[in-house]
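Late entry, evening session. Most of the bench is empty. Finally got around to the prediction I had been postponing all week. Sequence below, unchanged from the version circulated by S.P.
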Amino acid sequence: MRRLIQIQDAHPETVQIWLGYLQKYAFHGVGMKANVWENSSLDVGKEMDKQADEVAESVAKKLSLVGRRSDMVDSPDVEAVMNDNVFKGAWGGLAPLGPTEYVAPSKTR
């Protein structure tokens, strides 16, 4: 059995709230599919460029948090990197039992 509900000329935020309500209180085993179309003004290109700039700024802020040890990236002293506590902790070297050892597959033993 299928049901079709069409909502026309509604505010997009109201539609999103209603769909969220339906998903939250849906019965188990009952699927729901929603096709949502939104109309835009003729200046949609300018709006998209503005949104792209905002997204680029937020991504740049988040990417600045990645790779916090940038002072050691170009370091020729690999042993200093290997013995660094942050590096050891990242792969489990500071765990109570130490790092997990590699065990070769039974075919190669």
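Two things to note before I forget:
The mean pLDDT is 76.
The two ends are 58 Å apart (CA to CA).
Will write this up properly tomorrow.
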